[in-house]
Amino acid sequence: MNSPRPTISPALPEGPTKARVDAYDWRALTGELDGFGCAVLPKLLTPEECSALAGLYAEEQHFRSHIVMARHGFGKGEYRYFKYPLPGLLDGLRAALYPHLAGIANGWNERMGIAEHYPDEHASFLKRCHEAGQTRPTPLLLQYVPGDFNCLHQDLYGDLAFPIQVAILLSEPGRDFTGGEFVLTEQRPRMQSRVEVVPLRQGDAVAFAVHNRPVSGTKGNYRVNLRHGVSRVRSGMRHTVGIIFHDAR
């Protein structure tokens, strides 16, 4: 099926997202992703934008489905998948982040011997997803209350999966909630797993590997397997928005 790029929703203003994303030091961020499988983009969103996005959670018209994690063994907590058209701010961020990450992803695939090459623009990649039958949007809004957590997992929704995704913390640690740290684990061949705990403030984003990334060894590059999750929330309420660049079946 050949689907056009979804239009932008008027629910939130798009804002100067491209200029904001382009202003980061992408050489340094690439080094972080290559070295550790994740990189923090400080203050990607303003507090006002964070509050506006978090406030959408109660407005069901923005979403295609509602998931209660405990029903599926995913942990405790809940999330909602946005439907098309996406809120303008979220759509703009998805389009602005993708070109920077596509270059990194193509470099990873080349090092791992994977033939998949990602196009320069997100609209072209979405078209490829839709032609493969992956037409459901995957950006999501997550909500946690005390006792909630997200088990280690990978967000793979079909044969086509972009290897890097982004999560943005919408709540302020210490003020809105305690606990709830973002956690990344890396399973290395014939070695014990490595854990990365990523400190975030409100509006900070973390870009991280969805599934595999290459690591240089004595015999060339090898693949490591990554999973991500969220530790137990101790108090308050925590909201996060997740930007996944491939669509789902």
TrEMBL record:
Transmembrane segments: none annotated. Residues 135-248 form the Fe2OG dioxygenase domain. Keywords: Iron, Metal-binding, Oxidoreductase. One of its GO terms (molecular function) is metal ion binding. InterPro entries: DUF2086, Oxoglu/Fe-dep_dioxygenase_dom. PROSITE patterns: FE2OG_OXY (PS51471). It holds the Pfam family Oxygenase-NA. Belongs to the iron/ascorbate-dependent oxidoreductase family. This is Fe2OG dioxygenase domain-containing protein. It comes from Rhizobium lusitanum. The lineage of its organism: Bacteria, Pseudomonadati, Pseudomonadota, Alphaproteobacteria, Hyphomicrobiales.
